[in-house]
């Protein structure tokens, strides 16, 4: 007869982030001792690290930190939404973010090497993943710098932690407008800050496709140049932040809103879990 209750299983699940059957097995093996069950989960999980390497981590969360004029954004990924919303996983992400900021890490490699509780961030992730029984990875880390930074995190579902994160690095006094632009970026997902940031080969491809499409549509030769430039401009309006129609007032571009507010954005970054 099992020497534990359903409440013990739930407590172990909440503490470890592991699945129900794994928790039951761990309690069976440890005769109901929760601490020994946690150790069992970790040992069994470490044995399964190689097996988990090929698994897909399409769930997870984003975490942001702003430290003066420096902003940090990270994506911690896992396999299932069950783990993504577990308190243990959320707490792990917060702990990792604090360690990355403390180490002043500037990219993924330096973030993984950052010290945390006598280990590296990478080692802590592996240890926690072993207990959870899932592949867990720090997928991306971004850092932006300017006079000020705004961070915005968005929940795509009320049952899940934030899935979309944005950092906006800017100069200027109107922090409220800067935040509104961060919200806009979360919703409209621009790829570039200005037209000059779009790689030349992408612009040329868009121009070539627009011309071929116009010819296939039978547009007159004399009108091709104007049609092509119009369609390239349409590409910019869709993908370039300052050219996009502003979410709160689509009669203005984001660039015009920033100019009116006396704000100059130097960088932005947007993460969406799994994207």
Automatic annotation (TrEMBL):
GO molecular function terms attached to this record: translation elongation factor activity
GO cellular component: a single term: cytoplasm
Keyword field contains Ribonucleoprotein: no
PROSITE patterns, alphabetized: EF_TS_1
Region (Involved in Mg(2+) ion dislocation from EF-Tu): 80-83
Compartments, as annotated in UniProt: Cytoplasm
Protein name, per record: Elongation factor Ts
Source species taxonomy: Bacteria, Bacillati, Actinomycetota, Actinomycetes, Micrococcales
């Amino acid at each position: 007869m099992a020497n534990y209750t359903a409440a013990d299983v739930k407590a172990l699940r909440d503490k470890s982030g592991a699945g129900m059957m794994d928790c039951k097995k761990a309690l069976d093996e440890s005769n109901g001792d929760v601490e020994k069950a946690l150790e069992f989960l970790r040992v069994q999980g470490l044995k399964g690290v190689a097996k988990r390497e090929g698994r897909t981590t399409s769930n997870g969360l984003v975490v942001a930190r702003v430290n003066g004029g420096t902003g940090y954004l990270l994506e911690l990924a896992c396999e299932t939404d069950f783990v993504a919303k577990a308190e243990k996983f959320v707490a792990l992400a917060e702990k990792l973010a604090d360690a990355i900021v403390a180490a002043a890490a500037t990219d993924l490699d330096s973030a993984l090497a950052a010290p945390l509780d006598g280990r590296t961030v990478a080692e802590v992730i592996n240890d926690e993943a072993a207990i959870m029984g899932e592949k867990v990875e720090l997928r991306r880390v971004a850092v932006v710098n300017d006079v000020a930074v705004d961070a915005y995190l968005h929940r795509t579902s009320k049952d899940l932690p934030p899935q979309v994160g944005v950092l906006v690095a800017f100069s200027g006094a109107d922090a409220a407008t800067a935040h509104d632009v961060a919200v806009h970026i979360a919703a409209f997902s621009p790829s570039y800050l200005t037209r000059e940031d779009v790689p030349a080969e992408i612009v040329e491809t868009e121009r070539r496709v627009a011309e071929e499409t116009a010819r296939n549509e039978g547009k007159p030769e004399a009108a091709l140049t104007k049609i092509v430039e119009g369609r390239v401009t349409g590409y910019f309006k869709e993908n370039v932040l300052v050219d996009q129609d502003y979410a709160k007032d689509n009669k203005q571009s984001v660039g015009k809103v920033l100019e009116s507010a006396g704000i100059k954005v130097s960088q932005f970054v947007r993460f969406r879990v799994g994207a």
